[in-house]
Design a protein that fits this description.
260 residues; mainly alpha; two-stranded antiparallel ribbon; 10 helices
């Protein structure tokens, strides 16, 4: 009785009520309020179909992609303690990460994890396409998945420059040169010549998407800094947001899709 009285006092205390606003849900309304008021559960739909909670056979590439994203996030944060995104130190920091720094294997885990993540996302998209899972009601989630695929490739591309060696610089040179042919946004791309304000050409070599990526006309220290911010902050935040939406829609649209 003393334990039950203590438990009751704890559940009625201000500290407990500040964290848990609802009692144990006993009906549909209580379960809905419990989901809506929980910081973790509210990422899931309030109601899902019963078959949406069943385990089904897939290639598990979606879950593996999410796991690799977590690996990349953890190892990336650890690497940020040692890596300096400047032309003077970037290359030598990468060498030190491999040969001198304790837990330098984190850099190799980060590199190979990035390759595996690109592969797993491609295979996940292939499985979704082959099983017809892009069809209604999952067409919105398919678009979210396509955006996540593009962002995964951009994460890999922006990370490629950070070692700041000859391979990285020339690979990014080739990649950004292709950006000149981007429709409407590249100065050599289709439709760019149509974007004019009177006689003023809006898209030219000093204002197109390649110039925005490089922060200039050629790869330099400003490019390294820009790619570092895109790789470590900008793209990961967008990917994390879209992953939350993606998971939410998986449950909302009936769970993991199976073969047709």
């Amino acid at each position: 009785m003393a334990e039950r009285g203590l438990w009751t006092r704890i559940r009625k205390s201000q500290v407990w009520r500040s964290m848990f606003r609802h009692d144990i849900p006993k009906d549909a309304r209580g379960r809905s309020l419990a989901v809506l008021s929980n910081v973790f559960l509210h990422l899931h739909p309030v109601k899902v179909r019963k078959n949406g909670l069943k385990l089904s056979y897939t290639w598990c590439m979606g879950g593996l992609s999410f796991f690799l994203f977590l690996v990349e996030t953890v190892t990336g944060v650890l690497l940020m303690f040692y890596y300096r995104p400047t032309a003077q130190y970037a290359y030598f920091d990468i060498v030190d990460l491999r040969e001198q720094i304790p837990f330098g294997i984190m850099r190799e885990i980060h590199r190979w994890g990035a390759h595996l993540m690109v592969l797993s996302v491609w295979l996940h998209m292939l499985r979704v396409f082959l099983t017809g899972s892009y069809k209604p009601p999952r067409e919105f989630n398919w678009v979210v998945g396509v955006n996540l695929l593009v962002l995964t490739l951009l994460l890999s591309f922006t990370g490629y420059l950070l070692p700041w060696d000859q391979l990285a610089i020339w690979a990014v040179t080739v990649g950004t040169n292709m950006a000149r042919a981007t429709p409407l946004l590249g100065h050599e791309g289709p439709g760019a010549a149509l974007l004019k304000l009177g006689d003023l050409q809006l898209i030219h070599i000093g204002s197109d998407v390649r110039f925005a990526l490089l922060s200039g006309r050629f790869i330099g220290e400003a490019t390294l800094n820009r790619f570092y911010i895109l790789h470590c902050v900008f793209f990961p935040l967008i990917v994390a947001t879209l992953i939350a939406v993606h998971f939410w829609r998986v449950r909302k649209d009936g769970g993991i899709s199976g073969p047709l």
